[in-house]
Design goal:
Blueprint (H helix, E strand, L loop, with lengths): L3 H4 L21 H18 L5 H14 L6 H23 L13 H6 L8 H19 L8 H17 L3 H16 L2
Helix pairs in contact: 2-3, 2-6, 3-4, 7-8
């Protein structure tokens, strides 16, 4: 029997515990690839001009519009988990020597014994890898907007239409307005 402390939420009210049948279903490979794609799109188009909450709200709304019915928190938790697994696998692969087998050739038991996820889709791994490489490449090419007014004008001309292209109309207009205002205030 659970203690009364475990059953109470922050507000002191009773919270029901979720059973596995009530929890969200596992993510399919298609849903996971959609999530990675939407994260890449939002981070690529809106860069660092929106807050973390706004970013995840946009990602969740875009995923829902594409048939991946998940909440903001589910999307964020899934991404955190994917990124953690990706980093562990990437580190193993990059430090792999002749003595160590590739993660991809290990059986489930060996993966589990080494603390890796038993299953991690190689297509998802590649999608995350491409997104992170694109993110790294983009950070090296940013210009100093304070010293280059033409670069600022070019960014506004490119970002505002591009940002609204993949977003729901209301969110797209809000994000683009926010981007425009942040550029004008610089």
């Amino acid at each position: 029997m659970a203690s009364s402390e475990e059953e109470r939420g922050r507000g002191g009210g009773r919270q029901s515990r979720r059973t596995r049948s009530q929890a969200a279903p596992d993510w399919t490979v298609h849903e996971t690839l959609t999530l990675v794609s939407e994260i890449a799109a939002v981070e690529g188009e809106c860069r660092k001009t929106v807050s973390s909450f706004q970013k995840w709200k946009i990602v969740a709304e875009n995923c829902n519009a594409l048939g991946v019915n998940r909440t903001l928190n589910q999307c964020r938790r899934k991404w955190d988990s994917l990124l953690s697994h990706y980093k562990r696998i990437k580190k193993w692969e990059s430090s792999s020597s002749e003595e160590l087998e590739s993660y991809w050739s290990l059986d489930r038991e060996t993966r589990r014994g080494l603390g890796f996820p038993e299953e991690f889709d190689s297509e998802v791994f590649k999608a995350i890898d491409n997104h992170l490489k694109d993110e790294d490449d983009g950070s090296d090419t940013e210009t100093d907007r304070d010293n280059d007014p033409e670069a600022l004008a070019d960014e506004v001309d490119v970002l505002v239409p591009a940002c609204s292209a993949n977003l729901t109309p209301f969110v797209g207009h809000f994000v683009c307005y926010f981007l425009l205002m942040s550029f004008l205030l610089v």
